[in-house]
């Protein structure tokens, strides 16, 4: 992500999803009824087996489970999906190349394709969990340094509560561990883990691994002493268009920034600067909800992860800073007669955006199984739903039939929560603090290993099982986590089975 510098802009009213106003009183009442907490857990709720509504993918829970298009997509749009898929999987090359169709990679980059970090449209994993060992794919290290008081004041005038940071002066906003021939990579993300035991009621002992991050072999000298790091694995790609279609108002309605209801859970809406609409907007994408729309997220990935200029991020040198002179002067893939003069043109950006909007969520496995239903009841009574909100109904979006007016089950509120010191990265982003993270959507999480061949969870992949992921919860989620530690082993096992069925 390219971090914004100070912007002298006055506060613009939040741009609400246009379709919002279209809900009639009767419709609003129906939405409230279908999204209410169920009265009993002895049987699945209506439509529970279809987490993405009509867009849900039915069929085998295999390695392709996250790679299928929205189920009810028309033939013409299917073609667009497949074109987007091809760009998502394409390996970009250094400019200038003979064909010119796929050049412009770098000068600095983390991977040559989107797919490398989002394997099978699933999540990335920390390098230690991958073979061959030492491979860096699927994980990045965001960098920044604190902004000056003046810069902070300028930002606060634009977005209240915004905590701006600046790119690290030499290395920029992300550590790129690869570079085109002739240029040195910026360095390496080194991780060490320290394992410690967590005893659970009933005699079981879980072992968590606490990571420490360092930059190995920094190519242009040490990083700034006040540099802040945010390690992140690539999230799974399913259901993103449906999350984009949740009305702003329904997300904001669940926020409780001052914890007015006193339940210990606040939940804050992320307010971010949207490069796409040049105004503040509600953030939903990325581990700190730092980005408002999928198109902007995709454009930022092209710019920062692959080093490809595009209509939203037009700098062909991507994340190279002014201090990186060789990088700034390396040949670019831009050509005035080609691709709108960018390395990635608007049409290509739109195709990939369409693709990421339409990766379907697989159907639930065995939602009527008695142990899974018991786990669902435990999930509710333990307080998990305070953040992992089961249901939303998407807005009516005439130009996006696949996402329009669907009952969805993402198990997220799309809000920011203080998750305690254990998970903190101490690096603010937008309005998110160094302890806050966006509630991770849980749909499809049970298929992680089937899709990517590995299990690791949380923003930096430190948890090697779903139970470990829960045991890392702190801050606002500490009471829920403590209840999981204290509950009888059968309840804990049922809770995990429920998560595996999502
Ligand atoms: C080097 C690894 C890497 C590559 C390459 C990469 N991504 Fe990602 N992707 C990530 C990480 C890490 C995040 C989380 C970012 C954050 O927290 O802000 C992410 C997040 C996303 C998201 C938001 C998901 C969510 O749940 O909020 C989308 C969409 C996305 N990437 C699409 C793409 C596309 C399209 C490409 C290719 C143009 C791409 N990515 C290339 C690592 C990568
Ligand atoms: C206070 C809000 C909150 C509560 C309560 C909460 N969670 Fe979470 N959960 C989060 C956030 C935020 C994350 C992402 C944290 C991160 O990535 O570091 C998360 C992540 C997870 C993950 C990993 C997701 C992934 O994609 O890697 C699982 C599994 C999970 N939660 C399950 C639970 C269960 C089960 C409960 C109840 C015992 C629970 N959570 C209670 C906020 C909460």
Structure in words:
- By secondary structure, the protein is of the alpha+beta class.
- It has one domain (about 20-255, about 265-500).
- It has 14 helices and 13 strands.
- Strands 3-2-7 form a 3-stranded antiparallel β-sheet, with no helix packed on it. A two-stranded antiparallel ribbon has the order 1-4.
- The longest helix has 15 residues, at about 75-90.
- One heme C binds next to helix 3, strand 7, helix 7 and helix 9.
Distance between the termini: 30 Å
Spatial order of the strands forming the largest sheet:
3-2-7
Shape: globular
* Structure summary, number of beta strands: 13
Bound molecules: heme C
Strand content: 5-15%
Query: How many domains make up the 3D coordinates?
Result: 1
Q: Which H/E pattern describes the elements?
A: HHEHEHEEEEEHHEEHHHHEEEEHHHH
Main structural class: alpha+beta
Regions with pLDDT < 50 over 5+ consecutive residues?
1-19
Tell me, rounded to a whole number, the average pLDDT: 92
In oligomeric terms, what are we looking at? single chain
Biggest β-sheet strands, sense, barrel: 3 strands, antiparallel
Enumerate how many helices there are, as a single number. Answer: 14
Q: What's the Cα radius of gyration?
A: 22 Å
Q: Kindly state the percentage of residues in helix.
A: 10-25%
Domain Cytochrome c: 370-502
Signal peptide: 1-21
Organism: Phaeovulum veldkampii DSM 11550
Pfam family, one: DHOR
């Amino acid at each position: 992500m390219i971090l914004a510098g100070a912007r002298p802009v006055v506060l613009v009213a939040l741009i609400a999803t246009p379709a919002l106003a279209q809900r009639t009183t009767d419709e609003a009442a129906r939405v409230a009824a279908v999204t209410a907490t169920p009265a009993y857990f002895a049987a699945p709720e209506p439509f529970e087996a279809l987490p993405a509504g009509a867009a849900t993918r039915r069929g085998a829970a295999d390695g392709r489970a996250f790679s299928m298009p929205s189920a009810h997509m028309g033939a013409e749009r299917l073609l667009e999906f497949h074109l987007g898929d091809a760009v998502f999987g394409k390996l970009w090359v250094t400019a200038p190349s003979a064909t010119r169709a796929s050049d412009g990679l770098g000068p600095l980059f983390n991977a040559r394709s989107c797919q490398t970090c989002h394997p099978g449209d699933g999540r990335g994993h920390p390098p230690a969990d991958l073979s061959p060992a030492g491979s860096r794919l699927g994980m990045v290290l965001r960098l920044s340094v604190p902004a000056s008081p003046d810069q902070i004041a300028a930002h606060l005038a634009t977005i209240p509560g915004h905590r701006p940071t600046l790119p690290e002066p030499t290395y920029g906003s992300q550590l790129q561990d690869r570079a085109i021939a002739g240029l040195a990579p910026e360095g390496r993300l080194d991780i060490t883990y320290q394992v410690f035991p967590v005893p659970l009621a009933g005699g079981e002992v879980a072992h968590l691994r606490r990571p420490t991050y360092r930059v190995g072999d920094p190519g242009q000298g040490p990083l700034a002493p006040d540099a802040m790091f945010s390690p992140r694995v690539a999230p799974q790609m399913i259901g993103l268009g449906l999350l984009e279609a949740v009305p702003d108002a329904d997300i904001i309605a669940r926020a409780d920034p001052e914890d007015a209801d006193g339940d210990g859970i606040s939940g804050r809406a992320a307010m971010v600067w949207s490069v796409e609409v040049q105004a503040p907007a509600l953030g939903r994408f990325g581990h700190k909800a730092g980005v408002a729309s999928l198109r902007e997220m995709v454009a930022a990935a092209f710019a920062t992860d692959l080093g490809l200029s595009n209509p939203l991020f037009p700098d062909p040198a991507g994340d190279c800073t002014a201090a990186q002179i060789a990088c700034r002067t390396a040949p670019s893939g831009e050509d005035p007669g080609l691709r709108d003069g960018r390395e990635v043109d608007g049409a290509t950006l739109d195709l990939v955006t369409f693709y990421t909007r339409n990766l379907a969520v697989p159907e639930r496995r065995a939602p009527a199984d008695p142990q899974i239903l018991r786990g669902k009841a435990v999930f509710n009574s333990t307080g998990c739903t305070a953040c992992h909100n089961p249901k939303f109904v998407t807005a009516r979006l005439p130009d996006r039939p696949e996402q329009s007016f669907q009952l969805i089950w993402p198990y997220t509120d799309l809000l920011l929560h203080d998750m305690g010191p254990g998970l903190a990265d101490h690096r603010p982003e937008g309005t998110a603090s160094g302890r806050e993270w966006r509630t991770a959507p849980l749909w499809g999480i049970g298929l992680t290993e089937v899709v990517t061949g590995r299990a690791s969870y949380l923003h930096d992949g430190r948890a090697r099982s779903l139970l470990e992921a829960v045991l890392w919860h702190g801050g606002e989620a500490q009471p829920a986590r403590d209840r999981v530690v204290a509950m009888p082993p059968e309840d804990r096992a049922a809770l995990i089975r429920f998560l595996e069925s999502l």
